[in-house]
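WARN retry 2 of 3 for item q-0093 after timeout on previous attempt; input resubmitted unchanged.
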Amino acid sequence: MDFFISPAHAQAAQSQPDAFGFLLPMLIIFGAFYFLLIRPQQKKQKAHAELVSGVSVGDEIMTAGGILGRVTGVSELYAVVEIADNTEIKIQKASISQVVPKGTFEEA
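OK item q-0093 returned
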């Protein structure tokens, strides 16, 4: 009985795209990207910003380049770090990677 249906009518019924079928995979992919990439990166940036803003004189720090030293001065964007006796460098606070426990600088 299929020979009574014209081919043009049958094709028209099947060619309508399903908007929900297209959007659902896109939403799933976006959700995966958000929870696996974007959200953890935002948490990491927030934790680093808190670390940098909490740096004060006397803290012992390690820079992103691996320099270990004691903070002797702090401004809004920069920190002065003593890396050896009578040797100080001025670094950007954003380059501080971690605050190490007290006494680490003297042991090194």
